[in-house]
Design goal:
Layout (H helix, E strand, L loop, with lengths): L6 H12 L5 E2 H8 L3 H13 L3 E5 L11 E5 L1 H20 L14
Antiparallel strand pairs: 1-3, 2-3
Length: 108
């Protein structure tokens, strides 16, 4: 994942991970993540560019009703979000800096 995990991106990912199978529309995400539309939609666009989120437009149920665009984490998005947030939590809890790298098992 080449996306920088800012506090705003973290909030959006946490909302999605509350129930990864549930599609969410923009206004719902804005309220849950406590972000303005000018912050949220660029994040969603970057997540979609990274193929971590996909979106689709609903078919309005009533004439004159505006369609909503729904967003959902992809399978890869769920995995990447969990991994990134776990790493972020680890860094915060240990005070570690930089990327966490797995042990190679070799001698130094």
């Amino acid at each position: 994942m080449d996306l920088k995990i800012t506090p705003q991106v973290e909030r959006v990912l946490r909302v999605f991970l509350e129930d990864p199978a549930t599609p969410r529309y923009g206004y719902e995400l804005m309220k849950a993540a406590k972000l303005a539309s000018g912050t949220l939609y660029p994040i969603l666009a970057r997540l979609e560019d990274e193929q971590l989120v996909n979106s689709s437009w609903e078919t309005p149920s009533r004439e004159g009703q505006r369609p909503r665009r729904y967003y959902r984490l992809t399978g890869e998005g769920v995995q990447a979000a969990r991994q990134e947030l776990a790493q972020l939590s680890f860094v915060r809890s240990t005070g570690a800096t930089g990327a966490v790298r797995p042990a190679t098992g070799g001698s130094a």
